[in-house]
Design goal:
By secondary structure, the protein is of the alpha+beta class. Strands 1, 2, 3 and 4 form a 4-stranded antiparallel β-sheet that branches. The chain has a two-stranded antiparallel ribbon with strand order 5-6. A two-stranded antiparallel ribbon has the order 7-8. Helix 4 packs across helix 12 and helix 5 runs parallel beside helix 19. It is globular. It starts with a strand and ends with a strand.
Length: 436
């Protein structure tokens, strides 16, 4: 089995080289900065972004909108935000770069998840787009992504990356222009085609000047170009990123597995395993066999040893004894387990005719206290909302709050009716996201 790599030593090093591992048994680690080696790990911009396939033309970089976002992203708050976003995306970057290179696409596409999701695999927009590449439910057809009670493969960094790059490639083949192809990724290919037919203009920048595209799309490409420009010139903008180093591979599962149980029994980092498999909505693999689980190579032997023990239960269960007034739907809400899954684990159970004293089992996919009828827990959603409030403390900025609440800084500014670099007054109440 060939292990795919996630080798993120230094952002610019990754962007130009994917180093072959000498041993699959190296531990997960972070590589500390070294003053003596920093400059040697920084290739020139020209070697990072080949001019024949680059989106960073002088005209595009010189456009007032691009210059505006370069100024915003290169501010102290913007640099801190970009650094945090890239650190969050460190385990995904090498795979994305490999796919971009394999397809011969513009290398700046590596940074599109910065703009789409801030490299948060569980991101959900206000319109319902999900994942690193922000796929809507109505846009996943043909891209090998499933969504059900167990899975949302819009959050799978492998499938969503392949789907997004294929979509971008298809847009380019239709429009024969990368800025327009990116605009189509944001607003839809049909919308861009209709705008071209109506205006007889096939130039993204001209359409922007004439305000023929919606505001979000007008700002979309300049944001990407600004982020790519800054992140490809680390020395100029004082961004020294030393990120997580890991290798991963996929293994087929013969039975359902809880990530929590697997991590605990194999000594694997829980957070890393969760981030590698963010598509598992409940932290458990689906019941169909041969689901491919992504695991760190450094723990592969321990993980295989745990999985090969057929007598070892890989899912924990709550045991609950039915009392008067109980319903399966209330238990489902409390324990965060779909009703049909409870029914599957208790063959023959009838929701309308529960027997007092009957003991049922419920998969323990989430930490929950014992159920009581007096205090049923409401179901929760990972949908992004801005119903929370944050009282501004001295020194805080929209950039720093965007990092803390894992949200796009521009969105945070717009929700609060502010400019991105506006100074915050101490004690001001801001609308902030609520996440599960």
């Amino acid at each position: 089995m060939r292990a795919r790599k996630i080798i993120v030593v230094f952002l610019f090093f990754i962007a130009s080289n994917v180093v072959e591992a000498q041993s699959v048994d190296r531990p997960l680690r972070t590589v500390p900065p070294s003053p003596s080696s920093t400059s040697s790990l920084l290739p020139s911009t020209s070697s990072l972004l080949p001019s024949q396939n680059s989106l960073l033309s002088a005209a595009a970089l010189g456009h007032p909108l691009t210059q505006r976002y370069i100024a915003e992203y290169s501010s102290p708050g913007g640099i801190a935000w970009l650094r945090a976003v890239m650190e969050r995306g460190s385990i995904y970057l090498p795979f994305i770069r490999e796919e971009i290179s394999r397809r011969g696409l513009p290398p700046e596409l590596l940074y599109l998840p910065v703009i789409e999701s801030g490299f948060l695999s569980t991101a959900r927009s206000r319109s319902g787009a999900v994942g690193l590449w922000q796929f809507m439910m109505n846009s996943i057809a043909g891209y090998d992504m499933k969504v059900n009670d167990f899975l949302d493969e819009r959050r799978d960094f492998i499938k969503s990356t392949k789907g997004a790059l294929q979509k971008l490639e298809d847009n380019y083949k239709t429009l024969n222009d990368w800025p327009l192809a990116l605009a189509a990724y944001n607003v839809g290919l049909g919308a861009v085609n209709r705008t071209i037919q109506r205006t007889r203009v096939r130039d993204y920048w001209e359409l922007c000047e004439k305000k023929e595209l919606r505001a979000e799309t007008i700002n979309y490409v300049p944001k990407l170009l600004a982020a790519a420009h800054i992140l490809s010139q680390g020395r100029r903008y004082n961004i020294d990123l030393w990120l997580e180093y890991a290798e991963w591979t996929t293994i087929p599962l013969e039975r359902q597995v809880s990530l929590e149980v697997l991590a605990s029994q194999s000594g694997t980092d829980r957070e890393l395993l969760r981030r590698m498999n963010a598509e598992l909505l409940l932290g458990i693999s689906p019941p169909d066999k041969n689901h491919l689980l992504k695991v760190p190579v450094s723990r592969l032997s321990q993980i295989n040893q745990v999985l090969q023990d057929e007598d070892n239960p890989m899912i924990h269960y709550h045991r609950y004894t039915i009392v008067y007034g109980d319903t399966l739907s209330a238990l489902s809400r409390h324990y965060g387990v779909p009703l049909n899954i409870i029914e599957q684990h208790n063959p023959g159970i009838l929701n309308r005719y529960l027997r007092i004293g009957e003991t049922i089992i419920i998969p323990a996919w989430q930490e929950r206290p014992a159920y009581t009828q007096e205090r049923p827990a409401a179901s929760q959603s990972d949908a992004l909302s801005f119903e929370g409030n944050h009282l501004v403390k001295r020194g805080e900025t929209l950039w720093s709050l965007a990092i803390a609440y894992e949200v796009d800084p521009q969105t945070l500014a717009e929700v609060n009716g502010m400019e991105l670099n506006q100074i915050l007054s101490e004690g001001r109440s801001l609308k902030v996201p609520i996440r599960e």
